[in-house]
Design brief:
Layout: E1 2-7, H1 10-18, E2 27-30, E3 37-40, H2 42-46, H3 55-64, E4 68-71, H4 74-91, E5 95-99, E6 102-106, H5 115-130, E7 134-139, H6 142-154, H7 156-159, E8 162-164, H8 168-177, H9 188-196, H10 202-207, H11 210-216, H12 219-228, E9 244-255, H13 258-278, E10 281-292, E11 303-314, H14 317-331, E12 338-350, H15 366-379
Parallel strand pairs: 2-4, 7-8
Antiparallel strand pairs: 1-6, 1-7, 2-3, 5-6, 9-12, 10-11, 10-12
The structure holds a DNA duplex (18 and 18 nucleotides).
Length: 418
DNA sequence: TCTGGGGTCCTAGGGCGA
DNA sequence: TCTGTCGCCCTAGGACCC
């Protein structure tokens, strides 16, 4: 059996822990640059404030309904998430951190326990120690855990925040209750195709033939179907390191000149390299992407990416930045107004344990140089040392007009009780 | 005027060597 | 030497997740 522990309205809950006046009030959290709504409290959901709503269009609505708007405060959410995950590790060492607000835990060997009581003790401890409310879904497969978790969340009074699918009867009932669009792994495109086939619920989906699913969808959907049938097919994996690292941003305005774009790409590449070193990985390739403003329907649309493969794995800012600039030169097209760019490093391997190239290798001077840069940037601030092709004067500051303090990660922001 | 970012996994289709 | 087939690799892009 597995359990899925999911934090309720995680970002809003984090804010409420340190600002109790937000309890039982509608709260909406915005994306980077205060662009659109990415998280809502139950009260804001009840007012029909949609997910992804561009805030400039919904400002009056929020004002009218007294919805508190907050910029996203990732240092706070990241720290609270780490606290929740640490608590989970006290229950079992096998924790798969699935996202910032949810984790699967492996309950193999726990068969003698009462799963319902165990789930309740997990959520009680997390609530008591962090102030974050959670729901727990327990089932024989990960996809069924997702379903169980949704039931626990939907019926808090009946379930007490914990639901266990431990019989065939419960499984069938749960699948018949789950609309096809609410199945984990079915997005709006697949939903449309399944509805055309007459599938309205997760139960209907499991009634399709394996062959039909395999020939009309990808292996992912076939695995999902087996998982919903109660046959564990989606593996439990404890992710030690990431498989790719990305830094992508939308600009505050469009740029059509290569100078500004190159500067941004260079900075993103440097950030990726720094993140790579932080997890002690090196990359085999980088992907550089560039795109115009997809919301400007009348402007010429352009989206391109370029992959560059290294002869040897590298974590050097110098190598990665150089390659990124080469890549951007090949995909940059004149006359386009660019709104978003990004760098992704992938093909990651452990830095101290990778295949060497017989003839080519990294300049040995890079390693001590990178260590020195990382040390200085950690000691002072992340932009103390920059490359010359990054803009040294200008600061690309994110719009964050409704930012809460970093209560748990910045000494001056710690709450004082008088 | 103002519409996010960071991930994972899969597939199609072309190139290419056996 | 030529040709067809197979399978692998590479790359771009799509679909999904939170």
């Amino acid at each position: 059996m597995y359990a899925l522990v999911d934090c309720n309205n995680f970002y809003a809950s984090c804010e409420r822990v340190f600002n109790p006046s937000l309890q039982k009030k509608p709260v909406a959290i915005l994306s980077n640059n205060d662009g659109c709504v990415i998280a809502r409290s139950d009260e804001a959901k009840a007012l029909n404030l949609p997910m992804g709503a561009p805030i400039f269009k919904w400002k009056n609505f929020c004002k009218h309904h007294n919805i508190t708007i907050l910029s996203s405060n990732y240092p706070l959410y990241g720290d609270m998430s780490a606290r929740v995950m640490t608590i989970l590790e006290q229950f079992t060492p096998n924790v798969e951190v699935y996202s910032i607000d949810e984790a699967f835990i492996d309950l193999t060997g726990f068969d003698q326990r009462n799963f319902n009581e165990y789930g309740k003790s997990i959520r009680q401890r997390i609530l008591k120690w962090t102030g974050i409310p959670t729901c727990v879904g327990i089932a024989p497969t990960k996809a069924l855990c997702k379903v169980a978790n949704k039931i626990a969340r939907k019926f808090p009074k009946e379930t007490g925040g914990v639901y266990v699918i431990d019989s065939e009867e419960k499984r069938l009932k749960a699948l018949k209750w789950t609309a096809v669009k609410n199945i984990w792994g079915i997005g709006h495109r697949l939903e449309k195709r399944l509805l055309l086939k007459g599938c309205k619920t997760a139960f209907d989906f499991t009634q399709l033939s394996d062959d039909w699913v395999r020939s009309n969808f990808s292996i992912t959907e076939w695995r999902l179907k087996k998982d919903l049938e109660g046959i564990p097919t989606i593996g439990f994996e404890i992710k030690e390191i990431k498989r790719s690292i990305a830094t992508t941003r939308s600009f505050e305005q469009s740029y059509s000149d290569i100078e500004n774009i190159t500067e941004r790409i260079s900075t993103f590449a440097a950030q990726c390299a720094s993140k790579l070193r932080a997890q002690k990985s090196s990359c085999h390739m980088i992907i550089v992407m560039l795109r115009s403003d997809r919301h400007k329907k009348n402007a010429e649309q352009y989206s391109a990416s370029k992959t560059i493969i290294f002869s040897y794995p590298t974590d050097s800012t110098l190598n990665i930045t150089k390659a990124a600039i080469e890549a951007i030169k090949t995909i940059f097209k004149k006359g386009i107004n660019y709104k978003k760019a990004g760098v992704i490093v992938t093909g990651l391997v452990a830095t101290n344990n990778h295949q060497l190239n017989l003839f080519l290798h990294e300049n040995p001077k890079h390693k001590p140089l990178m260590s020195a840069i990382d040390h200085l940037n950690k000691k002072f601030n992340p932009t103390t040392i920059k490359l010359a092709n990054q803009d040294l004067q200008r600061t690309w500051k994110m719009k964050q007009e409704h930012l809460s303090p970093k209560y748990t990660t910045k000494i001056n922001d710690i709450i004082t009780i008088k």
